[in-house]
Amino acid sequence: MPSLYETLRADIVFAMKSRDQVATLALRTADAAIQRASMETGKPIDDAMVVTTLRKAVKNLADARAEFEKGGRTDLVTANSAEIALLEKYLPKAFDSAKLEELVVAAIASTGAQSKKDMGKVIGALKQSPEAPLLDFGTVSKLVQAKLP
Fold this sequence. Notes:
The protein is mostly helical. It contains 7 helices and no strands. The longest helix is centred in the middle third of the chain and has 25 residues, at 47-71. The radius of gyration is 18 Å and the shape is globular. The model has no long low-confidence stretch (mean pLDDT 84).
């Protein structure tokens, strides 16, 4: 089975051959970001790096879309939404809320966290877990805050 990066590269070629300029531009931009991340860290490209880079790209696009909505630029909102949908195809499915809550409760129990001052320990434990590449730590942070007194 090809890696996530190999799939992305194959989709770039397919988009170029089918003359889909929007997909080609979005995928090439994502590819460039992944290669830049690889060069900055000095590590080879793996699925975790691809997921992390694509998550950042989707977050940036979502933030930009919110600004475009405020400015009334429906053309840019539509373009950003299409690009987000294209990139999300490569991201793993997020955990459902029950599974996420179960992971947070287990991390709180394992670290012995008693208050919000211990939130860093809980987040650190979750970052070390095998599920870390699949977690959205923005959501996790809010859930941890809600669980700790």
